[in-house]
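In practice, a research group might receive sequence data for several interacting partners and want a quick structural hypothesis before committing to experiments. The following worked case mirrors that situation: the sequences arrive first, and a predicted assembly follows.
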Amino acid sequence: MARDRGSAETYSSPVKRLLTGLIVVLLIGVFLVWRIDSPRAERLRAAVIDAVVPSLDWAMVPVTKGADMLENARSYARIYDQNQELRRELRQMRAWREAALQLEQENAKLLDLNKVRLDPKLTFVSGVVLADSGSPFRQSVLLNVGARDGIRDGWATTDGLGLVGRVSGVGQNSARVLLLTDPESRVPVTIQPSGQVAVLSGDNSRTPLVDFVEVPEAVRPGDRVISSGDGEVFPAGLLVGQVVLGRDGRIRLRLAADYERLEFLRVLRSSPPEAITAPGDLVAPSPAPLLQPLAEATDG
Amino acid sequence: MGDPLVWRLVGYRALYVMAVLAVAVALLLPLGEGAGRLPGPDVILALTIAWAMRQPGHVPIVLLAVTLLIADLLLMRPPGLMAVIVVLGVEVIRAREESWRDVQFMADWAVAAALITAIFVINAICLAIFLVPQPSLGQTLIRLVLTVMIYPAAMGAVLYIFGVRHVSGRPGTAGARS
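A structural hypothesis for the assembly, expressed as tokens:
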């Protein structure tokens, strides 16, 4: 503080100096509170953003739409090529669709034969992207669904194609989704053919890093990567992307989700799997004494 | 202190807050992916320094602190840290208010560049002390250089878009008497 003054007799009356000191102490206090009790401070931040950003929607939507239209207008220049390309792709897709339908029927039959029940709890809430993180060093988006819609912290988010991120910070009407590219994002994943477990860690680049791979030799570019469900972070089996070899020679991931156009996102409702607290109970000799107290408890 | 002058001052202060919030909202617009791109300049910082160099009376400390704290909260930065450093930086400008009265623009720019660099360095040091994860050195340097480069544009905006003029009255009686 003292070094900031110099020859400042003209400016600083004691009252002003006191005010300056007070404000500096207050701001440092805010920072320290954030550093010490980050979740609570982040909840405060979520509340502030929740109050400000959705109410600025009227100003942001026209600008966003305008920019999108400009982007689209630029693509008119090569609309013929694009059309041809789309036709070609459509033909391929038709073939795939046929194959998918047949597989679906076959799958349904097999599931029926095996009496498999899919998890009925995996439903989703769709939200519209309201805003970016606003900082070049943080990667997150704000959705227009929040606690009011039953969104909870930690739920997985996809864009229909692949995993996008996880909910981190929920306001009444908005929820922040931490993208997989954020430097603080860590997601347990499985690399498909080799079945190895790894951690997907964002590092503010387009292609997040696949870390802690046990046998890197067994991983090839092009391998599919899905979420593993370890640590109860995410439901297992969501497509995340494909392995690519980074320019620095490390194993990286090309994300399946279309990060260029995040407009509508699905937040997957997931309830934590039933916890098994007492390992001994599982191998108990007879189930009858176990069920007895439970029945009493529900009666009473 | 006639009424028109007071209203004018209030108007300029409101204009500053609106400008900072407009920049923040522009940054929040969801226009595609941000990862892997060059970090842009810190427009809010450049604008604040430019405004304070021309007319410190328009950015009183309480207003500055509140505005920057809100900007910190909106832009997912560590809340309060950047705000306190910029507030102190503006106090440095304010304390030497008369020195900037009649300097050439190049000298003005040099002072601002030194101040912006100091703000970035102190910010990085604080983040390192408190073990907050921070972006790589290269990215921070790019952001610093871009912020210094954009300072003339910020000054142009302050002078010609917002119409702020040099201090010509006594310091402390904050009012644009052009």
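Before designing any experiment, note the following. Residues 168-178 of chain B have pLDDT under 50 and may be disordered. Residues 3-28+41-161 of chain B form one domain.
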